[in-house]
Amino acid sequence: MYMRLAFAVAAHLETEILVVDEVLAVGDSQFQKKCLGKIDAVARQGRTVLFISHNMEAVQRLCSRGMLLDRGRLIADGPVAGVVEQYRSAERILVDVGRFNPRARSGTGWARITNLVLLDDMDRPDSSRPADADLTFEMTLEMTGSTAPGASLRGLVTELVICSDQSQPLISVMNVDDDGVELPAASRCRVRAILPGPTLIPGRYRLNAFLGVPYLEHVDEIPDALEFEITPPLRPWRPYQLHASRQIVCRKAEWRCAVDAQHTPIAQPK
């Protein structure tokens, strides 16, 4: 609520320069949407907005010029697309693909996601899966020591959002979806989300993780919590390679075909 109030006051002041630092790290989706809309409107009025964020999708949507800082030192300055790509390249060197990365977490913190892994067919942590294989993610959820006696994980919602390497959201799954599971009245649990294959075209992807109550409380939210790779299918089922020019998500449909009863076949010459 402090962040909402601070942003509302700052956004409505007629200042020449508006500095917005990680405002999208808190609040629900409606608050974030309003923030983006207001920032865009301020920029269109001819005022300067200095937008600081690790959300590359928002950066590319709002900004025309980008500046990349490393420990307070300016290392890139120019068109936003090129600076974002330089950030991605540097980040790939630092990020250990397949390993849980909670460094950008935010939230009230009375419960936390303490581990997030991609599992192979033998339930072992892995960093990549073939495009035609199932995707199985396992989260470990645990309450911290600051909770009241008798409190538990029951009632919390967890969400995983699979994003492209450019942080574009692609797939969202929640434990309260149909055929989902309710979190237990316990202080610690493991929960799995399984997406049947085929899933995605080959490439690198990012996973955002959320634990809380939508529109009410963000208990633990971790952007880019896990990076993983999708490799070419083990048993290709199409006559061409899977490529982004055709799709990102790849599925197999159930097909049916019927002949129109009113159709008269063309007579074949004798």
Give descriptors for this structure.
270 residues; alpha+beta; Rossmann fold; Coagulation Factor XIII, Chain A, domain 1; 2 domains; five-stranded mixed sheet; four-stranded antiparallel sheet; 34% strand
Could you characterize what this model shows?
- With 270 residues, this protein is an alpha+beta fold.
- The protein has two domains: 2-94, Rossmann fold; 111-231, Distorted Sandwich (Coagulation Factor XIII, Chain A, domain 1).
- The chain is 18% helix and 34% strand.
- The strands form four sheets. It has a five-stranded mixed sheet, with no helix packed on it. A four-stranded antiparallel sheet has the order 6-5-8-11, with no helix packed on it.
- β3 and β4 (73-79) form a beta hairpin.
- The longest helix has 16 residues, at 29-44.
- The radius of gyration is 23 Å and the shape is globular.
- The model has no long low-confidence stretch (mean pLDDT 85).
Q: How far is the N terminus from the C terminus?
A: 83 Å
CATH class of the largest domain: Mainly Beta
Structural class: alpha+beta
CATH homologous superfamily assignment of the largest domain: abc- transporter (atp binding component) like domain
CATH fold name of the largest domain, please?
Answer: Coagulation Factor XIII, Chain A, domain 1
Q: How many E-type strands? A: 13
Q: In this structure, how is the largest beta sheet organized?
A: 5 strands, mixed
User: Which overall shape is indicated by the principal axes computed on the Cα atoms?
Assistant: globular
Instruction: List low-confidence stretches.
Output: none
Mean pLDDT: 85
Query: How many distinct helices?
Result: 4
Report the portion of residues in β strands.
25-35%
Query: What integer value in Å does the Rg equal?
Result: 23 Å
